[in-house]
């Protein structure tokens, strides 16, 4: 059986008095493509941000790339990492692609992709350049290597962001609604790259509103509602025969578009 890259057990996350995640559990094995679906405010993006420790869970168990996250609470009961060095270790194996690209505007496309390998991973410049160029070719943007992000379309910026996430050679890729900030005609070019990564056997967890894409590409789908996974299963089953009224309505509404 393939190794587990993510184990989440009873994960909870609150912002002040508001409990956003109320005991979420899921597992992703090597090569899995997990799609997280659900309405706004259901906890999808918060769950994803907890996996990369952009948000610190309040409770539950979280294991990423075989390493259990050790959390303690300060005197105000705010969660924090027990070992700060763990943050760098876990993030070095997790690539994240954001809704709003988050590229560095003062760096060229090539420099954006090379930045983390050189300054975080300690790669030699020649090696990082060669790898970055191969990734830009992978996402169809080699001719844009010396262009600044502000001169790219949204779809091109997101493809650069995917190349940047791949540059650290992650075992796990996280996508937080990667197409929701794009004009409709640019969505396809980004989904084509993500589909290609799935075909390569990359392990991915994807928050998306693209229901057809989730149905066709994911190996497992989780429907979140009110901070819990209300329903989950293989996409063919979940999309063709949702068990709860809320999931049925959500899928019906989104597949109709």
Q: Could you characterize what this model shows?
A:
The protein is an alpha/beta fold and 257 residues long. The chain has one domain: Rossmann fold (3-Layer(aba) Sandwich), CATH 3.40.50.300. The chain has helices at residues 44-51, 85-91, 109-119, 125-138, 154-166, 184-199, 211-217, 235-240, 245-255; strands at residues 4-15, 18-29, 33-37, 59-64, 67-68, 71-73, 79-81, 94-97, 172-176, 203-207, 220-225, 228-233. The strands form three sheets. A six-stranded mixed β-sheet has the order 8-9-10-3-11-12, with helices on both faces. A four-stranded antiparallel β-sheet has the order 2-1-4-5, with helices on one face. Strands 6-7 form a two-stranded antiparallel ribbon. Helix 3 packs across helix 4.
* CATH topology grouping: Rossmann fold
Q: What structural class do you assign from the helix and strand content? A: alpha/beta
The low-confidence parts are none
The CATH class assignment is Alpha Beta
Order of helices and strands: EEEHEEEEHEHHHEHEHEEHH
Strand content: 25-35%
Secondary structure: number of strands: 12
Total domains, how many?
1
The count of helical stretches stands at: 9
Radius of gyration, rounded? Answer: 18 Å
CATH homologous superfamily classification: P-loop containing nucleotide triphosphate hydrolases
Distance between the termini: 38 Å
Q: How does CATH name the architecture?
A: 3-Layer(aba) Sandwich
Indicate the mean pLDDT.
94
Q: Helix amount, in percent?
A: 25-40%
Main sheet specs = 6 strands, mixed
Read across the widest sheet, the strand sequence of neighbours is: 8-9-10-3-11-12
Shape: globular
